[in-house]
Amino acid sequence: MGSYELGGGQGLKLELCTTDRVGLLSDVTRIFRENSLTVTRAEVTTKAGKALNTFYVRDASGYPVDAKTIDSIRQLIGQTILKVKGSPEDLKPSSQESPTRFLFGGLFKSRSFVNFGLVRSYS
């Protein structure tokens, strides 16, 4: 519990979507490295000033990627711009709610829309 099994041979898929800027890639890969993650593959796309980057990461020691590590990286980079893709929590709903599922499912849904008043309740 508390770690991500790596799907396929490439690692855990993380998707970064944010405004492009000079040094963005080096900052993100430095944060991964400082948290003992190795980037096995990266797909980098920039369109109209927006960066859409996909990273496949592994634990540097070869273990499954720790959920706490990913959560702290998402806190540093930004919950709404760095998302975990294709994780076991995304793929199969489990009967027991794990802390990991709550962290990754709950945090990035709630913030961006409610705070800006974009979601109104019609009752």
Automatic annotation (TrEMBL):
- Source domain of life: Eukaryota
Sorted keywords for this record are: Repeat
Q: Which InterPro entries match?
A: ACR1-12, ACT-like_dom_sf, ACT_dom
Ranges for domain ACT come to: 13-89
Q: What role is this protein assigned?
A: Binds amino acids.
Which protein, by its recorded name, is this? Answer: ACT domain-containing protein ACR
